[in-house]
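Input.
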Amino acid sequence: VQLQESGPGLVKPSQTLSLTCTVSGAPITSTNTYWTWIRQPPGKGLEWIGYIRYSGSTRYSPFFRSRTSISRDTSNNQFSLQLTSLTPEDTAVYYCVRGAPIEGREYDYWGQGTQVTVSL
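Output.
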């Protein structure tokens, strides 16, 4: 299983970030699979953003819920993240990951991560 993030590396404050994760080797609709977005700001730990289930339903961190949307394109085996109202504090490496420990599914496959910088 491989995951690959794609999207802009530089975005301006107040804009919306759109990232896509392309999955190969496993359908994102496989039963009991969860597809997660995580980020790591510079000098900080990992932050869970949310996930989309194999069924298409979603769950978000309360910290991000008001400005986050995770969706999917099953025909291309991709899932996506939109994060609105960006500030420099959203600068981070963003990862797409398979798994959701809260659902009993440990993280087992990670994308390589993509650096996103929010700056004028």
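The CA atoms of residues 33 and 113 lie 20 Å apart.
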